[in-house]
Design a protein that fits this description.
With 553 residues, the chain is of the alpha/beta class. It has helices at 2-38, 103-108, 110-121, 171-180, 278-290, 312-326, 426-443, 449-458, 480-485, 513-542, and strands at residues 79-81, 129-134, 147-152, 198-203, 206-211, 274-275, 295-298, 302-305, 330-334, 355-358, 367-372, 390-393, 399-400, 409-410, 412-414, 420-422.
Amino acid sequence: MAVARKSRGTRVRHLGLAGRTGTVLLAAGIGVLSPASVALPAWAQQSSTAPDAGGYYATPPPVDKSKKPNDEGKPDKNYEQKTQCVQRSKLGGDQVDIKNRPWGQEYLQIEKVHQLMRGATNSIGGGVKVAVIDTGVTQHPYFNGRVESGGDYVANPNGGKQPGLEDCDGHGTEVAGIIAANPPDASIGFRGVAPDAKILSIRQSSQNYEEAEKKAEPPPPPPSSSNSAPPASSNNPGSQLPPSSQGNSAVGGAADGTAPGQNKGGRQQEQGKTAGTLKTLAQAVVRAVDKGSQVINMSVDNCRRADGGITEGEQQLQAAVNYAVEHNVVVVAAAGNVGDKCPQNDQPDPKSPKMIVTPPWFADDVLSVAAIDDTGGVAEFSVNGPWVSVAAPGTKIISLDPAEGSSSLANLTIEGNGEPGAIQGTSFAAPYVAGVAALVRAKFPGLTAREVMNRIKATAQHPAAPGGRDNFVGFGVIDPIAALTAIVPSEADKAKPVQLPANLPPANDRDSAPMIVALAGTGGGLVALLITLFVVHSVRRNRPATSPGRKTP
């Protein structure tokens, strides 16, 4: 019996030692792993971007500064007007003034932004020059003479206007209106984001102007005869119509609308024979910098299939936008619209896009702007991509009527089939961001271009995605109030916060990372304490009991 008890006692002691050893190892393992497992939730962790395989896809190659183009300041080809310029719509008879405030302004609290700027600087973007590289900008009365001629890469404007101040397409005027329009009538809800800013207009593209066809050489005249006059011929150069009277009918455009048809795909560069190439776009960027712009807005894009390479025009544009940022100019560009020639980036691996859009591709030097609709979700036409920086309203747009001589607003565009449709596109989301950039530059003049761009991204309403960004809205929808009031750690010595008016909501500028780390540490400590108590309890329970004075045989 004694032997049996000894054997059983020994077996119990061996099991107790194994249990203690396993418990200690388990505690050590959990203690090591617990910080990694509970420190940060998935959405707060930075995502790692896999390197591009076999070429340049999600990211372009490094900037080749030698590719910066020389600004020739003129069209690259001879372009002629082929489509009638935009006209004021006659829909519904006499026009009714648009009084309501656009939903995008309400969403971004632009009215409160203006109150804040007046209190802080007595101006709303005054003194800041924003270059609009687009289809030109007309001198609409709501600009109050704040539009400056910047140049023309399409053609000499009709009627002796200054270069850049003719907008045959109607696109650039609407874009510039979102940035800097200032209606004198207080009953009109629409306002530009920075209504005191200056606009530098550079006409770089047009869908209404196309490459001129080469004239056929006239046939040689018949042998002369002393008693016969030269026959009249349609080939006689003297009978040709002057360029100004050719193609004045609407061909694939809109003859009677507030704007030409918003073709699917937006304002694409290098499309057929229409005016606008990446090379002239690069020259226009250089020109905007050299003319003293502090912000550049480009609501024009080039979309192509990703093939791992980079074209010469893209290299020139990449060098140009880098030149701009290095010379302290904020560059804003539309993310691009989905169209027949630009399908959506919906491939399984979002880091390997099938379509490349420039200038957004050059995200190191460009704020690329996606569009949201009035539900707050990403607009279905907005092109996704790893280069998207932020998002802004891009649907149901109200802006300036671009028709020559108009002093009204527009909220519809006439499509090529004659049907009116809402004005929309990432083209109109970008100027919201350009306007906010102008306000930040006015309020914080000591910030560099890169610091302004970082401030806009850092204060955006981040999506619930790894690293606080995704390929749909980038770092999120812009928050102008936060961009003008938040404390960004990297610039705390340059940008000082101001006291918000009492009726403003608090700025969305809280950084949740410290709280997450603190909670994670507390949770880890609690887990370690529970494990320690479990180990002590196990050791005490498995310790062999011995009776005093009893001898083991």
